[in-house]
Amino acid sequence: PADLPLAGRHILITAGPTHEPIDPVRFIANRSSGKQGFAIAAAAARAGARVSLVAGPVHLPTPAGVDRIDVETAREMLAAVEAALPADAAIMVAAVADWRTADAAGQKLKKDGSGQPAPLVLTENPDILATLGHHVQRPALLVGFAAETEKVADHARAKLARKGADWIVANDVSGDVMGGDANAVHIVTADGIDTWPSMAKADVADRLIEKVAHALASRSH
Ligand code: C5P
Fold first, then answer.
1. Which residues have a Cβ under 8 Å from the Cβ of 34 and sit 6 or more positions away?
2. Is the CB of 27 under 6 A from ligand 1?
3. Which of 106, 110, 139, 148 is buried deepest, with most CB atoms within 10 A?
4. Contact 186, 196 (CB under 8 A)
5. Any catalytic annotation for residue 183?
6. What's the pLDDT tens digit per position in 26-75?
7. Left, alpha or beta for 189 (phi > 0: left; psi -120 to 50: alpha)?
8. 91 in ligand 1 pocket by Cβ < 6 Å?
9. Does 129 appear as a known binding residue?
């Protein structure tokens, strides 16, 4: 309905980990469950937005009213994100693998009997958030996440500038946030830091989407 806060808006969201192949049966990944990103996609859809959710490999159902694009690697995620542009706002929640193997093996790597492990040569993945931050089709509002285990606010502030984002949602993952249902976040913007109490990921999502709707409404349509 036209009276919902995000009616007529396109919101682009990434969520989950990426998997970077080592060989046909092995990959590099991380502990992201995708829960927070999926909760944000659900909240955006409830708020009336058209939602594109680019999801890494996760075991989660697609939220109602969300257009889901499944990907595996960081490079696939970047391609899917760029294909989904333009968007009014992009919220990059995915825990993208920083590195991939320089050259994934076509066949399963074998122990060769020498006792020497197979060398793993890594190369850096594209930074999807930073790419959007400097894109010709940069969304009007660009939000990144920062999972940190220490100096959470300091690292988030540095990340804002480096990535060209408007907001960084920083969370302390030194506890059991990853895979858990609750999250305590700080919203770092050019104007300062807004610290929210620990709450369910679904409530973080609703509150963040409310803030996104408010920010978009105060800019031009
Ligand atoms: O640099 P760091 O990985 O801590 O930054 C986290 C933020 O950047 C998140 O919003 C994440 O989705 C995004 N990111 C990305 N592409 C990468 C690495 C991180 O979009 N290759």
1. 15, 16, 17, 55, 56, 58, 60
2. no
3. 139
4. yes
5. no
6. 999 998 999 999 999 999 999 999 999 999 999 999 999 999 999 999 99
7. beta
8. no
9. yes
